[in-house]
Design brief:
The complex is a heterotrimer of chains A (290), B (692) and C (247).
Chain A lengths: L6 H14 L1 H21 L1 H4 L1 H24 L10 H4 L6 H34 L16 H28 L3 H28 L8 H4 L4 H18 L7 H22 L6 H19 L1
Helix pairs in contact in A: 1-6, 2-4, 2-6, 4-6, 4-7, 4-8, 4-10, 6-7, 6-11, 7-8, 7-10, 7-11, 8-12, 10-11
Chain B lengths: L1 H31 L16 E3 L3 H9 L8 E6 L6 E4 L1 H9 L3 H5 L2 E7 L7 E2 L5 E2 L5 H6 L14 E3 L4 E4 L4 E2 L2 E2 L2 E3 L2 H11 L2 E3 L1 H4 L9 H23 L6 E4 L7 H7 L5 E9 L3 E3 L4 E11 L7 E3 L5 E3 L2 E3 L8 H6 L23 H8 L3 E6 L5 E3 L2 E3 L3 E6 L4 E4 L2 E3 L11 E4 L3 E4 L2 E3 L3 E6 L5 E3 L2 E3 L3 E6 L5 E3 L2 E3 L4 E5 L7 E3 L2 E3 L3 E5 L5 E3 L2 E3 L3 E5 L5 E3 L2 E3 L3 E5 L7 E3 L2 E3 L3 E5 L5 E2 L8 E2 L31 H5 L2 H9 L11 E2 L10 H6 L16 H7 L1
Parallel strand pairs in B: 1-3, 13-14, 14-16, 15-17, 16-18, 16-19, 17-20, 18-21, 19-22, 20-23, 21-24, 22-25, 23-26, 24-27, 25-28, 26-29, 27-30, 28-31, 29-32, 30-33, 31-34, 32-35, 33-36, 34-37, 35-38, 36-39, 37-40, 38-41, 39-42, 40-43, 41-44, 42-45, 43-46, 44-47, 46-49, 48-50
Antiparallel strand pairs in B: 2-3, 2-4, 4-7, 5-6, 8-11, 8-12, 9-10
Chain C lengths: L8 E12 L2 E12 L3 E5 L6 H9 L6 E6 L8 E4 L11 H11 L4 H10 L15 H12 L6 E4 L8 H16 L3 E5 L3 H7 L2 E6 L2 E6 L1 H8 L4 H8 L14
Parallel strand pairs in C: 3-7, 3-8, 5-6, 6-7
Antiparallel strand pairs in C: 1-2, 1-4, 8-9
The chains are: A mainly alpha (290), B alpha/beta (692), C alpha/beta (247).
């Protein structure tokens, strides 16, 4: 048996699940609406690809984790949970996890990428300056930069998706999974940045290493990479972030999370811890419900 | 059944994995690809957004027969979608040294300079470069070659690949200039004929600019006031010439007294009405003793002065003929589009016939006082009633008009200017202009000072054409149908300071470059200030109660607009075209009624975008403040200035002031609707000011 | 059927123990499962049935002891139906089955054959959410047989079903043994177990109280029905519910 046995089938099933779940489609439509609103307020779309990316950076920093958590927190829970059955098939844990992850990632790329591509198409139609009197040129602006932006955004989503899946594997009930997903959301959206901020103000993080430390916070890494490799092309000013640290940070979160999923997927080894975390998150969820 | 289908699984899995690898590879490729490799091709200079030369210079060069070709630069910036053209390599060098330059435009993707190599370049007597045989490409286009502005795309070389001759005899109308050459031999040949030395691009970027930069304008104001004071002192001494002739005692009429009087003496005109036309052709002082009136026969000009150092003091003039230049003038210029084809005669050698039309038009018609080819004339304490022009100064530099009142036609379309100053730089001060076309109309009167006048119900208060270096200060205007102050035709170094303008269509419309608009109070106008000028400073003005506060017209975002107070305008700012402007300098912006956010006692730490739908309504619409504080909008505002050169049609102030700058005005007008929001203490300037 | 009971077991459970923390759920359980047999695990709630089944399927690593599969090599040695079958919503029964079939290299035609086997061919195009509880179980059994596993393990296949449907489920289980497949199931429906099972393991308080054919157990317990044998074999107060691991 190949090590990748079943990977394709599992991935394809996840893609179909995402496609068939109407709320995910709504999520995509919602994103498009948010993008449209943001760009209307920011006006970036007339400026070109880079200003558009700048305008969308902030909403994406909030919404990509949201989409990723929405896709990830139930990947192994609730109605989707046929792990015991799947494990009776010749499907390795690795390919099961990889299949579910890649399938959901394709879904995430579609949900986020679709509206972004629509925005990109809009920019190509109405973006940039036109003049009958004066010669115009693109400057540093380029559709490639927007595709870069899109790729970085999907990568960011990929990392948070893995984190959300890890959280969902470590807890048992779907209510607890929701709470764990929300916890991931909070940590990703604000936690890392706040820690970096606190670290900086308390002098725990030296000024010379801030660019490196920021790489450990997924959304800082994402923001830094966008500023560096998309916006920075037009401003010629680097130093938004230590690129290798940011890439390493994102890759680290991805690998650790997927590893946690692989290890946690057949519940035995972490039963004790998991039960503990499960109870805790369950209580939190219960408290939230009240 | 499983055994035979085994390979199928493999294929599918392999496909999936290969797709995965492909996607990863493509994404990685996205980040490896070098975007900066394509260098844009140079464009026709006419298609650039150009700076560094006045329209006057351009027209003059355009109409000269010689094939003058000034050194030019065209720059493709990373953030700015228009190609920016500079007259003179040194003007680019100066511009790129400006602190906000890179922030506004990004970095240059490509810079081209004029290539004089192989083009038989020579210098005219005044040092202007003339190219010999046009290149094949230019000849092939076949059209008439406008030497000054044309530049076929064949004559460009990348700036970094060129060599430069500095300190040679070469000049532009603005001063010394750097000559670029595509190859060193050509440069050496040029040095042999015209001197100078050869340097590289890096060294050229350090060459000081021939022009003063905008900031120096600020420092010049006092000097120019002092110069104007000296001129006025000198002219007012003409009043004290000894009285040798008294009208009515020595001679029966004013004219016969003038003829009888010896030069450099005073002709005294006692109280009374003198129905005659007067012609002063020798340096005399005509001074009224009591209420003396010269009344014409409602036909033609009443007083004509053709002698230097003539003084006309205290006499009232009326009975002027009704002949005016007519509707071509009254309507033709209010659009501000001077310099078009109608003024471009094109083939007159070296002369200034391009403005002949304007001179014909505007110097025509009847006037109360006409001063022609007479230097250093004084018109003082004169009251003029006219349905045509009040005073026409023609080629009479050094003239001073002060304490004079011109009451013109109630309907401006039937009237003419209060004062026409044509090629007559001097001083016009403390005078009053009511009705008529323009209170003061200047034409090629470089360095004219117009101060402390009052202008009421004219077409325009002050109208500058082809006039650089003017000093327009402390005038009070109201009720102008077109504009309070209108600076046309792209001049340089004009200063508009301390004027109070209200109830006009447009209070101030300033074009050109290197100009200074400061400490003006513009209120209750349709539009407060229209900024067409570039590389200029607009500061410390009060812009209040207008429909539109400031309109940004200039295509190039090179102005410094800070420390202005925007209060109670329906819209603080509107933008007609161009890219984002950042109206903040050195960490301080403007005071905007309605701007909100946390403050450090001097500035508000939230960017204010007066052109944005929510920010622009903050001072007017209840609830806008709540909406503006929405985290989404708040955070969005923080990113706005990231790539300003790529933003269309916006103005942003990243450090709005928390208290007004001109507190005297706020105190004098007892504005209570403007609450300073500098709450946090620390004894900052703004805070202390308001605690007083 | 009785002949096959003498063959070597397809699966042996030896001295299996399992504990969650300090609570022992399974204590020294040994059990053989033979091809062609229906082996039933019965016992009160909380006796450790599901834990045992999960250990057998390989979802639980036992604390001690061994579970060894001794059957022929197969793509899928053990087919499994979990207590509450879950199918990915939004797909048809056929699609759901085809997915599982593809994991062992079977085609959608093979998937249809499985559905015919359990009598669900007519519902093949129905959405999985629209199936009744019984039909979901049947589809689950079809799923458990995908890949022709020599051992099919069904965790409480008839719980919560009406009597007719329960009978149908047990019939299907019995039919599977016809082809030599071993079936291991857990159930509370003692009359059906009595009717269908070849061997019964009575699990009480984590260990096997009795094991053998229904007749042997009746005899051992001296009862005339399996239900009575069950009641007499189970320790403790029948009126209280013991909680022990998963029910």
């Amino acid at each position: 048996m190949s090590r990748f046995q079943g990977f394709g089938a599992v991935a394809w099933r996840e893609v179909r699940t995402v496609v068939r779940t109407r709320s995910y489609l709504l999520l995509s439509v919602g994103l498009l609406a948010v993008f449209a609103g943001t760009l209307r307020a920011g006006g970036g779309i007339e400026g070109g690809y880079i200003p558009t990316a700048v305008d969308l950076l902030l909403p994406l920093e909030l919404l990509v984790p949201l989409v990723a958590v929405a896709l990830g927190y139930r990947a192994f829970g609730g109605e989707n949970d046929d792990r015991p059955v799947l494990l009776s098939y010749p499907v390795s844990k690795g390919s099961l996890v990889a299949g579910v992850y890649v399938g959901r990632l394709i879904g995430l790329a579609g949900i986020i990428g679709g509206p972004l591509l629509a925005v990109g198409a809009a920019v190509s139609r109405i973006g940039g300056a036109e003049s009958r009197v004066f010669a115009t040129h693109q400057g540093a602006d380029s559709p490639v930069l927007f595709v870069r932006f899109l790729a970085l955004t999907v990568c960011f989503g990929a990392v948070v998706l893995a984190m959300a899946m890890a959280a969902s594997v470590l807890v048992r009930t779907s209510r607890a999974a929701l709470a764990a997903g929300l916890a991931v959301l909070v940590v990703v959206v604000a936690g890392g940045d706040l820690l970096a901020f606190l670290g900086l103000t308390a002098d725990a993080i030296g000024e010379d290493v801030l660019g490196t430390v920021l790489g450990a916070s997924p959304n800082s890494a994402y923001r830094g990479l966008v500023l560096e490799s998309v916006v920075g092309v037009a401003t010629d000013q680097g130093g938004a972030i230590d690129v290798s640290a940011a890439v390493a940070g994102l890759a680290g979160w991805l690998v650790v999370s997927l590893g946690a999923v692989v290890v946690g997927i057949d519940r035995e080894p972490f039963a004790g811890i998991r039960t503990g975390i499960g109870e805790l998150t369950g209580r939190v969820a219960g408290a939230l419900d009240r | 059944m499983s055994a035979e289908s085994q390979p199928r699984i493999e294929t599918r899995t392999v496909t999936a994995v290969s797709i995965l690898v492909l996607v990863v590879g493509l994404v990685a490729g996205l980040f490896i690809v070098d975007l900066g490799s394509a260098t844009p091709e140079p464009v026709d200079f006419d298609e650039t957004v150009s700076v560094g030369l006045t329209l006057e210079d351009e027209l003059r060069l355009d109409n000269s027969d010689a094939d003058i070709e000034l050194p030019k630069v065209q720059t493709f910036y990373s953030q700015y979608p228009y190609v920016v053209g500079y007259y003179g390599v040194e003007s680019f060098a100066a511009e790129q040294r400006q602190p906000a330059h890179e922030q506004r435009f990004g970095f240059p993707n490509a810079i081209y300079v004029t290539d004089y190599a192989g083009r038989d370049v020579e210098l005219t007597e005044t040092g202007l470069p003339v190219t010999g045989n046009s290149t094949a490409e230019r000849t092939a286009t076949g059209g008439h070659n406008h030497g000054g502005t044309a530049g076929g795309s064949g004559n460009w070389v990348l700036a970094e690949e060129a060599v430069y001759v500095v300190d040679s005899e070469a000049r532009t109308p603005s001063g010394e200039t750097v000559m670029p050459f595509g190859d060193r031999e050509a440069a050496e040949a040029f040095v042999e004929s015209y001197g100078g030395e050869i340097v590289g691009w890096e060294a050229v970027l350090e060459v000081p600019a021939g022009d003063d930069d905008a900031e120096a304008v600020r420092g010049r104001i006092a000097d120019r006031h002092a110069e104007a004071n000296a001129t006025v002192d000198s002219r007012t001494r003409l009043r004290d010439r000894p009285v040798e002739t008294v009208v009515g005692e020595d001679e029966p009429t004013v004219q016969s007294a003038i003829e009888a009087a010896p030069p450099n003496t005073t002709v005294l005109v006692p109280e009374g009405t003198y129905r005659e036309h007067v012609d002063v052709d020798k340096p005399l002082t005509l001074r009224a003793d009591g209420d003396a009136r010269i009344v014409g026969n409602d036909n033609g000009t009443v007083v004509t002065i053709t002698a230097n150092r003539t003084a006309f003091v205290g006499l009232n003039v009326s009975g002027v003929g009704g002949s005016t230049p007519g509707p071509t003038v009254t309507d033709g210029h209010s659009t501000g589009n001077v310099g078009g084809a109608s003024h471009d005669h094109g083939d007159t050698v070296g002369d200034d016939s391009w403005d002949a039309d304007v001179e014909d038009d505007y110097a025509q018609g009847d006037t109360a006082i006409e001063v022609t080819n007479a230097e250093d004339v004084l018109v003082d304490e004169t009251e003029i009633h006219t349905d045509a022009a009040g005073i026409i100064l023609y080629a009479s530099p050094g003239s001073v008009v002060r304490g004079t009142t011109v009451v013109g036609s109630e309907n401006y379309r039937e009237g003419h200017m209060g004062i026409v100053a044509m090629r007559s730089p001097g001083v016009i001060e403390n005078s009053t202009f009511v009705g008529g076309l323009d209170g003061v109309y200047t034409h090629r009167s470089e360095g004219i000072a117009v101060r402390g006048n009052e202008m009421i119900d004219n077409r325009m208060g002050i109208h500058l054409m082809f006039t650089s270096g003017a000093l327009l200060t402390d005038n009070a205007m109201s009720g102008q149908e077109t504009a309070g102050i209108y600076v046309m035709t792209g001049p340089q170094r004009n200063a508009i300071v301390g004027n109070e303008i209200r109830d006009t269509e447009t209070a101030i419309s300033v074009g050109g470059t290197d100009s200074y608009v400061a400490e003006n109070v513009v209120t209750e106008n349709d539009l407060g200030v229209r900024i067409e000028a570039t590389a200029s400073i607009v500061e410390r003005n009060v812009v209040a109660d207008n429909r539109n506060g400031i309109e940004a017209w200039a295509l190039l975002p090179t102005n410094r607009v800070t420390h202005n107070d925007f209060v109670d305008n329906r819209r603080h700012v509107s933008v007609s075209s161009g890219r984002l402007r950042v109206w903040t300098h050195d960490g301080e912006g403007n005071y905007w009624e309605g701007a909100i956010g946390p403050t450090d006692g001097t500035v508000i730490q939230r960017p204010y975008t007066p052109t944005a739908p929510v920010d622009g309504r903050l001072h007017q619409v209840d609830g806008a403040a709540t909406l503006a504080r929405a985290p989404a909008l708040d955070a969005l505002a923080g990113f706005q200035g990231a790539v300003p050169g790529m933003r269309a049609d916006e103005v942003i102030d990243v450090a709005p002031l928390c208290a007004p700058v001109n507190d005297e005005w706020f105190e004098a007008t007892e504005r209570t609707d403007t609450e300073p929001i500098c709450r946090s203490g620390g004894g900052s300037a703004a805070q202390t000011r308001y605690d007083d | 059927m009785t002949e096959t009971t003498q063959t070597t077991p397809i699966l042996t459970v030896e001295e299996l123990s399992h504990s969650y923390g300090r609570v022992d759920v399974l204590d020294d359980v040994s059990l053989d499962v033979r091809s062609g047999d229906v082996t039933a695990i019965i016992g009160p709630n909380g006796a450790g049935k599901t834990t045992l089944i999960r250990a057998i399927v390989g979802l639980r690593e036992p604390t001690a002891g061994d579970v060894s599969y001794r059957g022929p090599d197969a793509v899928r040695p053990i087919g499994y139906l979990q207590q509450r079958p879950a199918f990915r919503p939004g797909q048809s029964v056929k699609e759901a089955l085809t997915f599982y079939a593809s994991l062992v290299g079977e085609t959608d035609a093979d998937a249809m054959t499985r559905l015919e086997q359990v009598g669900l061919a007519a519902a093949a195009d129905r959405n999985v959410e629209d199936l009744s509880g019984g039909m979901t179980r049947l589809a689950g059994i079809a799923q458990a047989t995908i890949g022709d596993p020599p051992l099919v393990v069904l965790d409480e296949p008839a719980s919560g079903l009406d009597p007719g449907m329960s009978v149908r489920i047990f019939e299907v289980a019995e039919e599977l043994t016809g082809a030599g497949t071993a079936v291991l199931l857990s159930s509370h429906n003692l009359s059906l177990v009595e009717r269908v099972a070849d061997r019964v393991a009575l699990l009480d308080d984590g260990s096997i109280a009795r094991c053998g054919s229904p007749a042997e157990i009746r005899t051992e317990a001296g009862s005339d029905s399996l239900l009575k044998a069950f009641e007499s074999s189970v320790t403790g107060d029948a009126g209280t519910v013991r909680v022990r691991g998963e029910s």
